[in-house]
Amino acid sequence: MGGSAFRRWGVSPLWSGALVGLLWTVAPRPLPMALAWFGVLLAAIDLEHRRLPDVLTLPLYPVVAVLCAHEWRKALIGCAAFGGVHLVTRLVNPRAMGGGDVKLAGALGAALAVHDWFALVWATGLASAVTLAISVVTRRREAPHGPGLLAVTWWVTAL
Predict the structure, then answer these.
(1) 64-115 per-position pLDDT tens digit
(2) 1 pLDDT exceeds 60?
(3) Rounded Cα gap, residues 118 and 126, in angstroms
(4) Are 120 and 78 in contact (CB under 8 A)?
(5) How far apart are CA 102 and CA 91, in angstroms?
(6) CA 56, CA 45: separation in Å to the nearest integer?
(7) DSSP class of 71
(8) DSSP assignment letter at 70
(9) What is the pLDDT of residue 40?
(10) Measured between alpha carbons, how far is 74 from 115 in angstroms, rounded to an integer?
(11) How far apart are the first and last CA of the chain?
(12) Strand, helix or coil at 145?
């Protein structure tokens, strides 16, 4: 599954690690770096295969939990709120987003809430705008939502 995405987008775990090293000079904090590493891999796979594999989305939870442990209550509420909004969207309109997007949203919600409460609202709108832009650029009626979620969360937490 991930092999063709890695070839097509020029992405590999090693390349993603090199990018994280470069980004360390911009935002030398562990949370944005972890989000960048997972984000590059997940975005490439989602753009190629329109799915976010559990093998990458689920390990993000303990990584974010450890990196946000200093404010675990905010992280837990953000996880439930952001993941919950995405779950409700999925239940109301299953074609709007996939289950992987819902699983990813929980971990990203924890990171966003620890950064700032308003970031949860702001990221929802921006991620939708990025998804719309991907739809226009790729000329797909239904574009993957994961890359928008990942890019916006990294941007908010890094800058």
Answers:
(1) 999 999 999 999 999 999 999 999 999 999 988 999 999 999 999 999 999 9
(2) no
(3) 12
(4) yes
(5) 10
(6) 10
(7) G
(8) G
(9) 86
(10) 9
(11) 33
(12) coil
